[in-house]
Specification:
heterotrimer, A alpha/beta (296), B mainly alpha (338), C alpha/beta (292), A: alpha/beta, Rossmann fold, 2 domains, four-stranded parallel β-sheet, C: alpha/beta, four-stranded antiparallel β-sheet, 12 strands, 22% strand
């Protein structure tokens, strides 16, 4: 072997072995993620993370997203690798990412394993609480080297959340039923962030202690718990009306206080189910449903 | 032309078709690689970290191998079941084995059970258990003193299949909303790059099972004479049925374990081959192995590219082709035998 | 010379409902022998146990009692393939559905002589063709069996059995679905095969005329037991037949062949005008009337 090649090989080995150049972090599931340097080409398989990246102004480093990463509008310019459940690995690989953001709630484990086999570092995220969302923002800031923006974004979020808390504080908590899906009835449980959002907005989710993230629930039990406000998630997207909430079905349940008082509302799904900078938007919307009197 | 030379010719032609489909699958894809780049990667002359190497050797090639193995295994299992039940409409899924395996996988996903040392094979192990459980159930229901009753076998297969499908529905209904997408996606049947060790295991199972059935091909022909007549010709009918049944169940189970339930390959491919080659299982089994591989690979290549960069599940393509085909068969050719 | 087939004290009963017969056995204490080179017939009413005997001989079922020998060897420990090299069975009906051609069917008969082989040898092909020629179906070789007429199908099935090159050819009700012409053909074919190749033939039939004409010796089964074994003239005796078949019977002699001709004695007013026919009840009746 030529001396020049030997030298090159040696340098390479040193670089690989040398810890100083390594960039090791722990992701939100406690896994160690090792990179050679802060990532420059990030693919986000998580719509919430995409939102955060844009909020922090780190979109220059974002080279790929999913079809569901639809906010902000500027995100459309970033190439998509397909769905969350079935991203196209070839497209993803062609983007030459040095880091992929994925979640254990929405992406498949198999995808994560495939990426690991392709030796593409994967950073797993998981956020079910407002606090975890703020943590996530900090982490994304670190990974995109936009730490400077984090206080601004987080601070804004906290301010708005506080404002809502103050606004609804004088009023008694209202029992809230959130309907993710009407038939079968799917509601937010212990692990769902929605439970906390409702709580911040001055409500008390009647399904707060049931199941994990989004369990099935019996309509009878829901009725028996006499919610005062019913919020129906609106799954319709743009042109299609499929999945639009149907308040008429609920109007038959005349024993329920919410129905008697006419407190049935339709909520935009994408705001309430993302753990990103729009969390305050969701909280404010919920607060207006639960305590309209606080915002007159 | 003797049967042996017909077989050689058929294999030669199907082999050529398979090679063409393999080439197509390797050269076409979302990554938009030039044929020269792919060729470089295949020859090993591209850098190990280069895009063409990664896409061609780590994504496309394993997927191609998986597709060929799965398609061949399913087609051979189809020939086996059809010979066993003397019914050309019998399908691997008819045994309920696919459903049993699928149930195993869903159960694994629900319980979050990850046997760490079987990390990659953890779910596959569950699929196997489910497949063999279903096969054993069908066997026990259909076994009468003296052997496997073929009519009861068909019915038992349908019932066991329904049972496990319902069980899957129960699991889905109590499953968390977030996991739902992944499970439903899997149930459609997808081919994805499989790691080398798993692929080796899959190959061993697919080829081993196919070999068992190949060895029984001549006896399967004799089964058409009727069981009593076959016994009188010297065929050990009980052992034959057991051997073919187990091998076909193993083939079906392994495909479901590694790729999820994919339907209709075991129906379409044997039928087309029968139209060309006739009923002799000695010709059908080896050609089904090659033809099935080509068929599924072609379907998968279509699924991968037809709405690129999104991907369709290959099970969708085979069902879309297979279901109308099944109806056509039912209405035209096989009315008399039903 | 030892007999080709020997049944000694054989008893067998099917499990479950069919057991509800007198004695509880399908065949009881059956003993007889078939000599090599003869044409042997088994006759008797339905459910007398004729098909059971066949099944016992080919070990589709195993005897509960007694011993069955083939060429001097007890068949119980023999492998089915071994039995198949010596015994070929032509079943009553062609299997349905049967998607193979005549040639493929006949080639199946070669299986016992090379069960380990994947494809048949050239020798197998030659023997198959010879068998097809012997039964006159060679020109139908490439046709699917299902496209053949009843008689042609039967001949194809026979060809398959001949291709097995058996020592013993067994036929289960060979003429039950055939036209008169084919009945004649079948009988002639059997005689020829027996004469030319020395193949022993075992025939199970409820066609007593065929049995009488073709067979050297007969076995009459009565409810699972041997009623009589012997040449047709001995076995086809009127009082015996009437007892076994439980109906009035007339036995004439075929003037051409000298073999017995059995027929049902039809009742009332149809007494034949032949002399020597003392068995018809009307004749008896008129006689008894006349004797008043």
């Amino acid at each position: 072997m030529k001396p020049a090649r030997v030298a090159a090989l040696a340098t390479l080995l040193l670089l690989v072995v040398s810890p100083a150049a390594a960039f090791t972090v722990r992701d939100m599931l406690g896994r160690e993620v090792t990179l050679a340097a802060p990532p420059q080409r990030i693919v986000s398989l998580v719509p919430s993370v995409t939102e955060i990246v844009f909020a922090l102004g780190g979109e220059a480093r974002l080279v790929g997203r999913t079809d569901f990463c639809d906010y902000p509008a500027a995100a459309q310019a970033t190439p998509s690798v397909g769905g969350m459940v079935n991203p196209n690995l070839e497209t993803l690989v062609t983007l030459k990412p040095d880091l992929v953001f994925a979640t254990d709630e929405g992406n498949r484990e198999d995808t994560v394993r495939q990426l690991a086999r392709l030796r593409i570092p994967v950073y797993l995220v998981h956020a079910n609480r407002v606090a975890e969302t703020l943590d996530l923002i900090t982490r994304v800031g670190a990974m995109t080297e936009r730490q400077a923006e984090v206080p601004r974004v987080s601070g804004e979020m906290l301010r708005r959340i506080e404002a809502v808390r103050k606004a609804v504080a004088p009023f008694p908590r209202r029992r809230v039923l959130y309907v993710l899906w009407p038939d079968p009835l799917i509601v937010p449980g212990r692990e769902s962030m929605l439970t906390e959002l409702i709580e911040i907005a001055g409500g008390a989710s009647i399904t707060a202690t049931d199941g994990e993230a989004y369990p099935r629930f019996s309509l009878e039990a829901a009725v028996a718990r006499a919610p005062e406000v019913i919020i129906l998630a609106d799954h319709s997207t743009g042109a299609s009306t499929a999945g639009r909430s149907a308040p008429d079905k609920w109007k038959r349940l005349t024993s329920v206080p919410a129905v008697q008082a006419g407190r049935l509302y339709s909520a935009d799904l994408s705001i309430l189910h993302r753990y990103g900078p729009r969390v305050p938007d969701g909280i404010e919307m919920l607060a207006r449903f639960i305590h309209p009197e606080a915002f007159r | 032309m003797s049967a042996a030379s017909r077989l050689a010719l058929a294999l030669g032609i199907l082999g050529a078709v398979l090679l063409v489909v393999i080439a197509l699958a390797l050269f076409v894809g979302s990554a938009g690689l030039s044929p020269r780049a792919v060729a470089r990667a295949l020859a090993g002359r591209a850098g190990a970290e280069s895009i063409e190497s990664i896409v061609t050797l780590q994504l496309r090639l394993p997927r191609v191998v998986a597709a060929v193995l799965a398609g061949g295994a399913l087609a051979v299992a189809g020939v086996a079941f059809q010979g066993l039940t003397r019914n050309p409409l019998a399908e691997p899924a008819v045994l309920g084995v696919s459903s049993g395996a699928a149930f195993g996988v869903v159960l694994a996903q629900i319980s979050g059970l990850q046997l760490s040392f079987l990390e990659v094979l953890g779910v596959a192990t569950f699929a196997f258990a489910g497949a063999l459980l279903a096969a054993a159930a069908v066997y026990m229901i259909a076994a009468v003193p003296g052997g496997l009753s073929i009519q009861t076998l068909l019915l038992a297969g349908v019932i066991v299949g329904i049972f496990f499908t319902s069980a899957i529905t129960v699991l889905i209904s109590i499953m968390d909303y977030n996991r739902l997408g992944g499970v439903i996606y899997w149930l459609l049947g997808n081919l994805a790059p499989i790691p080398a060790t798993s692929l080796a295991l899959f190959a061993a199972l697919a080829l081993g099972g196919s070999w068992l059935i190949l060895r029984s091909a001549r006896e399967l022909n004799l089964l058409a004479l009727g069981e009593e007549a076959a016994v009188q010709l010297g065929v050990d009918v009980t052992r034959l049925k057991r051997r073919v049944f187990t091998a076909a169940a193993l083939l079906t189970g392994s495909v479901v374990a590694f790729t999820g339930p994919i339907g209709f390959v075991g129906l379409v491919v044997p039928h087309v081959l029968r139209g060309i080659l006739g009923q002799d299982n000695r010709l059908l089994v080896p050609t089904a192995l090659v033809g099935g591989g080509a068929f599924l690979l072609a379907a998968d290549t279509l699924a991968r590219n037809i709405v690129a960069p999104a991907e369709l599940s290959v099970g969708v393509i085979t069902s879309f082709c297979g279901a109308p085909f099944f109806v056509y068969l039912l209405r035209t050719r096989y009315r008399a035998t039903l | 010379m030892a007999p080709l087939v020997e049944f000694t004290g054989v008893g067998f009963g099917y499990p479950r409902p069919e057991r509800e017969r007198e004695g509880g056995f399908s065949v009881t204490d059956v003993s007889f022998a078939i000599e090599a080179g003869e044409i042997f017939g088994v006759i008797g009413p339905n459910s007398a146990g004729k098909t059971t005997l066949l099944r016992l001989l080919t070990r589709v079922v195993s005897a509960d009692r007694g011993e069955i020998r083939l060429a001097g060897r007890v068949i119980a420990p023999l492998a089915h393939a071994e039995l198949a090299r010596q015994i070929a069975v032509v079943p009553q009906e062609a299997p349905r559905p049967f998607p193979f051609t005549v040639e493929q069917l006949v080639l199946m008969g070669r299986y016992p002589h090379g069960p380990g082989r994947y494809f048949e040898t050239d020798e197998d092909q030659t023997l198959a063709r010879a068998a097809m020629a012997a039964t006159g179906v060679l020109e139908l070789a490439g046709l699917p069996l299902e496209q053949l007429s009843g008689g042609e199908r039967q001949r194809a099935m026979l060809a398959r059995a001949l291709a097995q090159q058996p020592k013993l050819l067994v036929l289960d009700e060979p003429t039950s679905h055939l036209d008169l012409r084919y009945q004649l053909e079948t009988a002639a074919l059997l005689r020829r095969v027996n004469a030319e190749q020395g193949t022993t033939v075992l025939l199970v039939s409820h066609d007593l005329d065929l049995a009488a004409e073709v067979c050297d010796r007969l076995l009459l089964l009565d409810r699972g037991r041997v009623a009589r074994v012997g040449p047709p003239t001995t076995v086809l005796e009127r009082s015996l037949l009437e007892r076994v078949f439980r109906c009035p019977v007339a036995v004439d002699l075929n003037p051409t062949s000298g073999r017995p001709l059995v027929r049902v004695a039809w009742p009332s007013g149809r007494a034949p005008r032949q002399g020597g026919d003392q068995s018809s009840p009307s004749a008896q009746g008129s006689r008894s009337e006349g004797s008043r």
